[in-house]
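Per reviewer request, we include the raw input and output of the structure prediction for the construct analysed in the revised manuscript.
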Amino acid sequence: MAVGVKIIVRREAIVHRKMQTEPGTASGGEWAAGYTKGMKTAVSLPDVVFRAAEQLARRAHKSRSQLYADALTEYLARHAPDEVTEAMNGVVDRLGAIQPDAFGKRAARAVFERAEW
């Protein structure tokens, strides 16, 4: 069984919602504008994942929304290797080729030889 939760993606938005004129009434109502910092999105999670996330949020003293936002941010960063590679290549291009001195060469060789392959 899946549980619906809300994830906050950082983005400012004006939210319009229909408000009932009286609690429990199905008809009528008026539109009200509200301000929220973030986009609210409903997602479905397996129960075991939801419960584990709830426990982690409590231990980390974070809201559920913050936990999901942090997790999604980390996931996106880990799964965007092309962007990381492009950024690293840009740094190398800007710095140019750096030639190590004799000490640097010896140190690199020693580390290389001790590494397990």
